[in-house]
Amino acid sequence: MGRKLWTTVLTFFCLLILSGCGTALPSSTPTSTPIAGSITFAGSTTVQPLAAKIGQAFNAHHPEVTLDIAAGGSTVGIAAIHDGTVDIGMASRELKPEEAAGITVHQIAVDVLAVVVNAANPVENLTSAQLQDIYLGRITNWQEVGGSDAPIVVVIRETSSGTRGAFDEIVLDKAEPTSPNLQIAITAGDMAALVVKEPHAIGYVGFGHIETGMKALSIDGINPTEENVRNDRYRLTRPLLLLTGPLTQPIAQTYIDFALSSEGQSIVVEHGWVPIQ
After folding, report:
1. Which of 1, 107, 153, 266 is 20 to 30 A off residue 41, Cα-Cα?
2. According to the 3-state scheme, what is the secondary structure of 169-189?
3. Segment 98-120, tens digit of pLDDT
């Protein structure tokens, strides 16, 4: 048998042996199976736009996943997880003990509650006591806190709002706000629009919702900045949360993991919130 033929035979038998032992021959790297499906959300109107921004980047990686991101307020989002009507609830306040059973909390950011007035208002700072007195109807004219002689238009959020819940707890010690000129804003956007339109209004929004035509006041001389939040000098803060429960689809965890990734957290920073990673 010639040397060339003998080499060919040996090679053939080696291949048979490798095949019989289950040894895989070199091949191209398999591609990962793309995920597909639908993830539903409901809850905080503060978290909703952030969830949507993160969702846009998420869909760039997972175009076969449909995201349905509704709002309704934090209380609505918590109830929806208990009912199993959505996969991810959104909340902008801590859960009460009676709400927390069966819910897994995923914090994706820290929100800074900014007390805002019309940009033309000359007032730049309020003390915590002054702010509380304004919202409890004890101070009713801007002149009493160094402003012009004009009645204060006090704007609050409706009761299902996580922003309202956080503000009432932090600033008002859970007291009910009251004022001769009290107005209610349904959403964060409504709150911003009222303050921009009304020169004598005061309201509160998440830091990511500050718009042209309004300005954020310092409280006790401390400005609402990320640095002051991180060193615990500015105390009007609250968590931004995603919530899951026993009836949440497993695919929802893919979105949450992305929100907590470096790419997801960079979106948090880009849109004015404080990241947790």
Report:
1. 266
2. HHCCCCCCCCCCCEEEECCHH
3. 999 999 999 999 988 999 999 99
What gap in Å lies between CA 119 and CA 136, rounded to an integer?
23
Query: What's the pTM value of the predicted model, to 2 decimals?
Result: 0.68
Return d(Cα 34, Cα 26) in angstroms, integer.
24
Contact present, 223 and 240 (Cβ < 8 Å): no
Rounded Cα gap, residues 207 and 23, in angstroms = 59
- How many distinct structural domains can be found in the chain? 2
Task: Decide if 153 is inside a domain.
Answer: yes
Residue 34 has a pLDDT of 79
Answer yes or no: do 153 and 221 share one domain: yes
CA distance 41 to 251: 13
Interval 33-69: pLDDT, tens = 679 999 999 999 889 999 999 999 999 999 999 999 9
139 in the same domain as 103: no
